[in-house]
Design brief:
32 helices, 10-stranded mixed sheet, single chain, alpha/beta, elongated
């Protein structure tokens, strides 16, 4: 290989692209020279450094988001930017994203941040579209979570006081008396309001816009009254009733629970039992097989004292089977599903079995009675009955132990056969006296099983630990039980079909949400809406002191609603029965007592549409957005209450997001030390190096970067990657804005008008960039519209990093730095940069509002001072952004020479790879030191040849002149940042003849050092350098600029 020359054969493979990075001072007039300029300027004794037009901007390289973002938010607040935009749009079409209320019971976590930031993306997008966007944040303030927090604080205070008293040798007083309902409610209210206020401050720090001064809280009296109105309408229509039936009940909370208040932790294990029920008298199919027992299996042995039947499936084949053992009793004769004979034998560890007879479940239920495992007030014997489809032969024995007081399927079977709803368990989960002295008072979840097994030991066939799905109270994290109690229910059946029809009319994103909520509504039983707690909206019912009959009607309900609207729901506890009853019932007040139940908190939040949307005329909302778990929670409770009252869903579109996991896909837990606190992401941790203060925009960029429709991950490494993406975007903005520091607009024109007026005179490169910007706007608009925020960030990042930084801005340096101040080639470039800045600042604003606002106020060509109302906000718009209407576009320009510039970018990448190799081999220093010989094989790459030939012009440099026919913008030399390009056509067929086994490349590039003199100002090599005695080290382009500057300065 000859020194000074390198021939590189290149295919279109991916390769490292070399670039020199530029930096500059933000000082307005310091002209701090970039590293690249400094090196050369030093050699030239800094003679021409002041003639180079370097970037100037106050837009800092570092975001300093921890301090800067709060300043921007303060400006929003002080000038009421959101409120002003809302007021200006009051006559516009509204867009309503209804906020699902978070619980006001603690600090925010990363899931809250994901949820609220997603909502803010959408709201800000529609603000830019000119819609009236009033986002009313809400809080769920009632219910057990808050009540438990209050009680925990009281317990902690008592423990602390006792510890202090003991330490000081003081006498420990008696335990404080229990709080009255009103005392508890007052403390719960204070806690909820205080927590909501703290959460509000955190949400606002995330950059969330909304009506923060007028949020909705479910404890507001207006809200409670609207909720009771929904209850009243449902009661009038016959949907609300009181009944005794099994419901999920939490002994740890001492209240009934809805399905949405349950969670199913992994690895739950129960002690299950296979047991023999002795047949007392049999159906005809078993006459000749006596004595024989029924084999049953249960995972809840504590329910055996409440057994009132054994259920079978009429269509399943059962069998009488003898199981044989090596030990006593040596043989057991059992009834079991035929398909489970061998499985049961394995469980029992039988040597072998013998099938004696088969028969159907219907035959078995023809008069078979057995001895109940526990003889109590329900009698000694019970019957085999035909149950429903829930009786299967998938596992167990195919015969189901049935306790109507402890299972919903059991309850339905009991209703069909007139069985008692027997549930001998109290609110604390302990057996009552109904089961007898041996079990009375035992906790069914923690104490009962051991005693049960002792009492039934002789009838136990075998037992085992069984891992299965079991519900827990989502608040206390302790197991629940199914227990029959008298509760208030909302019957779903009367409007189930209407609910399913309403679901079909809603747009579900992702689409699987429709199937999920439909199956839940289809299979949902009646909704238990009563809770045995004090902190909530009361169920306004009165009970007769003697008969226990309830008193509730429209007149009473309306009277209570009026009271609640004026005084709040505390009135139910503070007022007398006589005051709470309307005039026509006051004389009966002495015969009644008030009910103590409150409403399910899902009924609270599920009626938010009534208070927040309906009274503002915004029902149905355009969008509900919450986590995917809300298909069984808020989405469903809102749907059911709205359909019951309004006959339609309260939303047009439902969008769901997943849960947040750590970087390994693990659930976040303090014990695992993998919790990511959004507050720490924004403000940094104690160790700033380990947990730097990234600011809210980086947190928001993370939200935008993930596929939120499924579970998402976050961790330190993820945040570092997101910050790097943010840094590249910010630096691109900074470079662009630094190069328009002296750009001004005509007084009578805006950017769009000025570009339109000059468009035909623009270079092909500038037209291509404008077309690319227009395409970006279209794609970003579509992505926002379809909630594809990761697509938005990818599009903007790619445009900033690839189209701008790596290409357009890279080749624009010569135009911007070297040209005369007012040269057309420079002013055209500034005009293109200005429209890019205007457009991208708005495109990125919904996701990165702080950097967008900061950028907007740093634009030097905008009217008004930075952060003034005259300048306005980046979210101020005088048109309703709409891609479909060219007059409502931010950047509407035709596509220009796309094929040409696609070829140029491909070619430039190949050249950069060749230049980097040449640089490593010390053939060249900077890229402008290179001369290229490019060989293109003619018979297959005509398009590339013509694209390059069109732009290849190696004429000597000429003085800058706007009237010149020299297109020095689209010149290959300046596009490649090299001093010379020679294009040479080669014959592919000739190459194949000389080397038949070779694979000719698309092109080959020879890099050599340009031997012509180098300009001391622009660094390009050109034959015109040295031709001017006044400045022998300048080329013809630069000498004209320097002479003009010297003339103007003198």
């Amino acid at each position: 290989m000859l020194l000074g020359v390198l021939i590189i054969m290149l295919a279109s493979a991916k390769a490292f692209i070399f670039r020199q990075k530029m930096s500059w001072s933000s000082a307005a007039r310091s002209h701090h020279v970039p590293k690249k300029v400094r090196c050369f300027a030093k050699d030239a004794k800094d003679e021409y450094s002041d003639t180079v037009l370097l970037p100037q901007t106050s837009f800092s390289q570092r975001a300093n988001a921890k301090d800067r973002e709060p300043e921007i938010q303060q400006w929003w607040d002080e000038h009421k930017i959101y409120e002003r935009i809302l007021e200006n749009a009051k006559e516009k079409e509204p867009f309503t994203l209804h906020d699902g209320p978070p619980y006001a019971n603690g600090d925010l976590h990363i899931g809250h941040a994901l949820n609220k930031i997603l909502k803010d993306f959408i709201n800000r997008y529609y603000i830019l579209r000119g819609r009236k966007v009033e986002y009313i944040p809400g809080w769920d303030c009632h219910g057990l979570p808050i009540e438990l927090k209050v009680l925990q604080f009281i317990d902690d205070a008592e423990k602390k006081a006792k510890k202090a008293a003991k330490k000081n040798g003081q006498e420990i007083g008696k335990k404080k008396k229990e709080l009255s309902p009103l005392e508890l409610r007052a403390k719960a209210r204070d806690f909820a309001v205080e927590t909501a206020q703290a959460q509000k401050l955190s949400f606002r720090r995330y950059g969330i816009w909304g009506s923060w001064d007028t949020p909705y809280l479910t404890l507001h009296k207006e809200y409670e009254a609207a909720q009771l109105e929904v209850f009243t309408t449902m009661f009038e229509r016959g949907y609300i009733y009181r009944g005794l039936k099994p419901v999920w009940f939490s002994p740890s909370s001492q209240t009934a629970l809805a399905e949405a208040e349950l969670e199913y932790p992994e690895n739950h294990v129960s002690r299950s039992v296979f047991m023999a029920f002795h047949i007392k008298s049999s159906a005809p199919c078993l006459y000749e097989l006596q004595p024989i027992d029924l084999a049953i299996w249960t995972t809840t042995p504590w329910t055996l004292p409440a057994n009132l039947a054994v259920s079978v499936n009429a269509d399943i084949q059962y069998a009488a089977v003898d199981y044989f053992f090596d030990h006593a009793p040596f043989r057991r004769r059992l009834v079991v599903a035929e398909s489970l004979i061998d499985q049961l034998g394995t469980k029992l560890k039988a040597n072998h079995s013998e099938k004696l007879k088969t028969f159907s479940g219907a035959d078995l239920a023809q008069g078979t009675f057995y001895t109940r495992p526990f003889n109590n007030e329900q009698g000694k014997y019970a019957q085999v009955l035909v149950g429903g489809d829930y009786v299967t032969a998938d596992s167990g024995t195919g015969l189901v132990h049935t306790a109507p007081g402890h299972g919903y399927d059991d309850y339905q079977t009991g209703l069909a056969y007139g069985l008692n709803v027997f549930s001998p368990v109290d609110d604390r989960g302990r057996y009552t006296a109904q089961v007898g002295d041996e079990l009375k008072g035992l906790n069914v979840l923690t104490q009962a099983n051991e005693q049960i097994f002792q009492l039934i030991q002789k009838d136990v066939l075998c037992d085992e630990m069984y891992a299965h799905r079991y519900p827990y109270d989502w608040r206390t994290k302790k197991p629940v039980i199914m227990r029959a109690t008298s509760q208030w229910f909302a019957s779903i059946k009367p409007f189930r079909n209407e609910s399913l029809d309403a679901i079909d009319q809603v747009s579900w994103v992702p689409a699987v949400g429709e199937k999920r909520i439909s199956s839940m509504v289809l299979g949902r039983e009646d909704w238990c809406i009563s809770r045995q707690r004090s902190w909530g909206v009361p169920i306004p019912v009165f009970y007769h002191k003697d008969s226990g009959q309830h008193l509730m009607n429209k007149e009473i309900l309306q009277h209570v609603i009026n009271i609640v609207r004026e005084y709040g729901s505390d009135a139910w506890w503070s007022m007398s029965i006589e005051e709470l009853l309307p005039e026509s019932f006051k004389d009966q007040a002495h015969n009644y007592v008030k009910g103590n139940d409150t409403m399910d908190v899902w009924f609270d939040s599920g009626t938010s549409w009534a208070s927040v949307l309906k009274r503002r005329g915004l029902l149905p909302a355009d969008l509900y957005l919450e986590g995917s778990d809300q298909h069984r929670g808020w989405f469903q409770s809102s749907l059911l209450t709205s359909v019951a009252v309004n006959a339609y869903a309260p939303y047009k579109t439902v969008l769901t997001h997943g849960f947040v996991l750590d970087e390994k896909g693990m659930k976040m837990s303090k014990s695992l030390g993998n919790v990511i606190d959004p507050k720490e992401v924004i403000n940094g941790g104690k160790d700033a190096k380990k947990n730097p203060p990234y600011g809210a925009d980086v947190l928001r960029l993370w939200v935008a970067s993930v596929d939120f429709t499924s579970d998402v991950k976050i961790g330190p490494n993820t945040l570092k990657q997101i910050f790097e993406q943010y840094r590249k975007i910010r630096n691109t903005f900074r470079y662009m804005i630094g190069n328009v520091y002296d750009f001004t607009l005509s007084e009578d024109q805006n950017l769009q008008q000025e570009i339109s007026a000059k468009y035909e005179q623009f270079s092909s490169l500038d037209k291509w960039m404008l077309g690319s910007l227009s395409k970006l706007e279209e794609e970003v608009f579509d992505a926002y519209k379809n909630f594809q925020f990761s697509r938005v960030t990818n599009l903007i990042s790619r445009f900033c990093v690839t189209d701008l930084s790596a290409f357009y801005l890279d080749v624009a340096k010569d135009r911007l730095y070297i040209s005369p101040t007012n040269a057309k080639r420079r002013r055209d470039c500034q005009l293109v940069l200005a429209i890019c800045l205007d457009t991208i600042s708005k495109l990125v604003a919904p996701i990165l509002p702080h950097i967008a606002e900061e950028l907007w106020h740093a634009l030097p060509y905008k009217p008004g001072q930075s952060f003034s109302l005259e300048r306005g906000s980046v979210f101020d718009t005088n048109f309703d952004w709409d891609i479909a209407n060219p007059s409502l576009r931010m950047a509407h320009y035709p596509k220009a020479d796309e094929a040409l510039w696609s070829n140029i970018q491909y070619f430039r990448d190949e050249v950069n790879k060749a230049l980097e190799i040449a640089r490593r081999n010390n053939i060249i220093g900077a890229s402008v030191d290179a001369a290229l010989d490019v060989f293109i094989y003619d018979d297959e790459h005509e398009d590339l040849w013509h694209s390059l030939k069109k732009l290849c012009d190696n004429r000597p440099f000429e003085p800058h002149c706007d009237d010149s026919d020299w297109n020095d913008i689209d010149d290959l030399r300046f596009l490649l940042l090299v001093s010379k390009v020679n294009l040479i056509r080669k014959s592919r067929s000739a190459l194949l003849q000389s080397a038949p086994n070779s694979t000719p490349p698309k092109l080959s590039i020879r890099v050599s050092a340009d031997t012509r003199p180098k300009c001391a100002r622009c660094w390009y090599h050109d034959s015109s350098v040295g031709a001017h005695s006044d400045h022998p080290d300048l080329c013809s382009r630069c000498i004209a600029v320097v002479n003009d500057l010297q003339t103007s300065s003198s």
